[in-house]
Amino acid sequence: MRPFRLRFCALFCVIAASVSGLGAQNPELDLLIKNGHVIDPKNAIDAVLDVGIAGGKITRVAANINPALARRVADATGLYVVPGLIDIHSHVFYGTEKDAYLSNSDTAVQPDSHSFRSGQTTLVDVGGAGWRNFLQFKEQVIDRSRTRVLAFINIVGSGMKGGPVEQNLSDMDAKLTAMRIREYPGVIVGIKVAHYRGAEWDPVTRAVDAGRETNVPVMVDFGTHTPPLSLEDLLLKYLRPGDILTHMYSGVSGRVPIVDESGKVRPFVWEARKRGVIFDAGHGGGSFLFRQAVPAMAQGFRPDVISTDLHTGSMNSGMKDILNTMSKFMNMGMPLQDVIKSNTVKAAEVIKRPDLGHLSVGAEADVAVLNVRKGTFGFVDVGGGKLAGDRKLECELTVKGGQVVWDLNGMSRPMWTEMR
Ligand SMILES: [Zn+2]
């Protein structure tokens, strides 16, 4: 079989080369995305324009770029062209360790199997690895993925393995956590605190200490505490501006919800936003209720960032993917432009990666082309409740570093009849 396969591959490569030669002779652009409605909040662009890509970078954003200049042209008429989406809360430390929850386990998701089909070019794993097993995560996942994978490392040295491992205060070391972050600047972009059930504040204070030493944010999944720890103290005393409360619309017993019994967003939650605490949707399999989100949205308390909390449980229930989650917010009244902003330039700002989340000339060419489908749709929360909606996002094309990595309807491809 091997010689045949090699011959087939060689033949295919020749065909591919001739197809890519169908465009201009010495093209200035590798790919031209034409006539799409570009939403690039960082550059205040919200208009029908063309986007030119060459050498893996954005090289031109302008009206009426001549298609003869491009090797490949994708017609995005009627579609939205946006920066590649960033998911600041996912779980992608997949592996084969038994009973290891989201740290080298099969509850986590292989990044490329999920990212590109929903317009994502950057996934941030939050807490899968701690300082002890980050190198394994890097070698096993980060280095092997085409998706850009970044990490918030867990304040627990062994990472998010569930059970007693995550309750072990003696494995929460600010110094060693900071040491690991300093070794991988820009890849480890934050620190995660999650699932601690005790009465102590130590997981939070140690994470904040490490964050202060390394100038990265802390993300807190406040979990469940019996009796509940004070959410007000967390938001107003312990977290710094730029730190993140994830699962903002959760309604689990053991954590104070942001919307009180009378349906009002609590005053201290508004105060926290004013002082710069970041609120992240973090949908997940148990952390997003319309009962919380709808009244909060009606009062103007929107998410700063709309993340998935991706794992095999959430992707196969109400969350599904980032576009389904973003669509929920559109159907709760958030304009498309703001939804895009939250998962591009705002997400990049939160993780302190200003090189990402925009289509500036010179930026790495991470682009998503999205369709806003109109029709009758249903969106389900973690309690099983449904919201009816009339708009739903779908990803037509994803480009990562200038390469087409997802093309739902072949918009960047020639007709087969034109191929030799
Ligand atoms: Zn999570």
Question: What is the gist of this entry?
Answer:
By secondary structure, the protein is of the alpha/beta class. The chain is built from eleven helices and 15 strands.
Helix-strand layout with pairing:
Elements (H helix, E strand, L loop, with lengths): L1 H19 L8 E12 L4 E10 L2 E6 L7 E6 L4 E4 L1 E6 L29 E11 L3 H7 L7 E7 L19 H10 L4 E7 L7 H13 L3 E4 L9 H8 L5 E2 L21 H8 L3 E2 L10 H9 L13 H4 L6 H10 L4 H7 L2 H6 L16 E14 L5 E15 L2 E5 L13
Parallel strand pairs: 1-4, 1-5, 6-7, 7-8, 8-9, 9-10, 10-11, 11-12
Antiparallel strand pairs: 1-2, 2-3, 5-13, 13-14, 14-15
Helix pairs in contact: 3-4
User: Which hetero compounds are present in the coordinates?
Assistant: zinc ion
Q: Average the pLDDT over all residues and give the rounded result.
A: 94
Helix content: 10-25%
Low-pLDDT regions: 1-21
Morphology call: globular
> Would you list the SSEs in sequence order as H and E?
HEEEEEEEHEHEHEHEHEHHHHHEEE
Major β-sheet, in short? 8 strands, mixed
| Rg (C-alpha, Å) | 22 Å
Q: Please report which band the strand proportion falls in: under 5%, 5-15%, 15-25%, 25-35%, 35-45% or over 45%.
A: 25-35%
Terminal residue distance = 25 Å
Helix-strand category: alpha/beta
**Total number of strands:** 15
Supply the number of helical segments. 11
Q: How would you describe this protein?
A:
- By secondary structure, the chain is an alpha/beta fold.
- The strands form 2 sheets. Strands 1, 2, 3, 4, 5, 13, 14 and 15 form an 8-stranded mixed β-sheet that branches. A 7-stranded parallel β-sheet has the order 6-7-8-9-10-11-12.
- A hairpin with a 2-residue loop joins β2 and β3.
- The N terminus is likely disordered.
- The chain binds zinc ion.
- Zinc ion binds next to loops.
- The site of zinc ion (ZN) has 6 residues, from loops.
